[in-house]
């Protein structure tokens, strides 16, 4: 029985050994964003403070980005911000140190990676667009913003055109009302030049009768006006 337990433990170590070796301890050299993909254009998921310890789970072969674990969260950090201990000295993580440090080469897929770690994140709703790459995502997002701003400008222009049209219509209505009122004033207003004391002369600036004009106003039935 004792030998059986020992054999099981040995088999367990053999099974777990490669899994344990699939990670290396690293340290961040600056306050760096841990991102949802191997590019600065992917969303940031956390900030790793300078000097913090991280577990390097794997790195890409074509670009110097590594999949790291920090306080239970997963994300990607550029190798130029991560150091590891190699031969009793710290070195920046790069392709030449992947094998000596036991860092495996991995690949990145938005679908698999995000399904595993980011289902609760807001940006996960746009996973299908991000799966085509950050360049595609930003290019189409900028295009959408362009059309949105253009449509908003069109709406504002149409609104201003309606304002001008309504203003001109109000002015035309005011002019028509003024034309209607003008004959009424001509019928009711008395022209001071038609008064007898102004006939044959001009009034001064104080609207006093010209001395050459008649000094009084004739009233109907007044014998002086006969």
Defining key terms:
single chain; 226 residues; alpha+beta; 6-stranded antiparallel β-sheet; 5 helices; 8 strands; 42% helix; 19% strand; SH3-like_bac-type; SH3 domain-containing protein; signal
Give an overview in words.
The chain has 226 residues and is an alpha+beta fold. The protein is built from five helices and eight strands; from the N terminus they run αββββββββαααα. The strands form two sheets. It has a six-stranded antiparallel β-sheet, covered by helices on one side. Strands 2-3 form a two-stranded antiparallel sheet. The longest helix is centred in the C-terminal third of the chain and has 55 residues. The radius of gyration is 46 Å and the shape is rod-shaped. About 6% of the residues have low confidence. Pfam families: SH3_3 (PF08239). This is SH3 domain-containing protein. Keywords: Signal. It comes from Rhizobium lentis.
